[in-house]
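Narrative summary of target 7.
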Amino acid sequence: MVHGAAVVLVVVSLGWVSVFGFVEPWIAVAFGVLIALGEVARTALPGERDQAPLGAAGALAYALLGSLAGERTHHGVAQVVLVWSIAALVGAVPSLVRGRRPNADSAARRVLAVGFAALLFQPLYNRGVLLRHGLEHGPGYAAYIAACAGLSAGVDVCLAALLSETPLRRALCDETTALLRIGSAVAATGVVISIAAGEIGLWALPLFSVPLLLTQAGFRRYAAIRATQRQTIASLARATEVAGYTLPGHAQRVATIARGVGRELGLSDQELLLLEYAALMHDIGQLSLVDPIPGGATALLCPEEQRRIGRLGSEVIRRTGVPPEVAEIVARAAEPYRGADGASDGGPPLAARIVRVANAYDDLACDDPGPARREEVLAQLRAGTEREYEPRVVEALARVCPRISG
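Modeled conformation, tokenized:
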């Protein structure tokens, strides 16, 4: 539905501009170049978000542009949408050349959010409504533009949550958190450029883009550090495979399953990150064994041996610089969901329960990932929900497995 609405908006905008003409082309080109450069400089941000902050700020500024160097502009909603669409396509060319697939969700969100911002501002400005109400100059003008930017950001958050695989409530929380990180800087930059352009013209574009570029560089550096940390953890996790203690790809499969289950259960971005780290390193304690377990299947060991491997793995992890929560998850993943008295209160944290279920599933199903074997393994896990595995985690796994297998 979101994709369809975005396509309809672009087609309608193209038709409108074709009929009524393209106005002030040099202004459109200047903002289009800024948007395209922002798309080229697209970067990975926390929470697996691939964004173009500079391009988003440029599009927002053009949507909220009223005057340029003291002269009124006359572009409308349709031209704003068309300029963004063309610039985004041009900016995506380098990524396409490198073989990267465009992010359709991000494009649909952005065109609808930009179109919404332009709809709030352009008709009222071009028809003189803001002027008649004293909102075309001074603090009132700045406040109205800021309100338009804020509402546009809210629309973007809602659309992102609708397109997310995460449950809606959790997705709204995650997207709102992301908005408070880089989204607030994007909105502020767009507002400042649109207001400043009214006084100093197109010089506002490069001048007020610099702070956002510096902010984006800081996020890019953080993302690079986190990617390096994950690569280090993944390499350490492969030590058990290289040494012959676990089957090839076991750690990565468990991490993929655990992350899917965690997302299904509504874990936040930070919780998903810790869960993934723990899932990758959950078998590191096997390196202490004299003889490898057949197939590396810890789910088939006695409870005491599982806990011993979990404790040893936890001690290794605490010395690697990984967040301490990861070591705690690995240690507790060896514990059953319910205690000996049958109570679940005070049991392992949710992340540990997820890792336990994901590991058991891969241990039992890795030899035959087909649908028949999958249902058989899920039946075994359901049979263990009285004590070993949390029922809601197993049911979340049952929903996630077909998507992962597909």
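The two ends are 23 Å apart (CA to CA).
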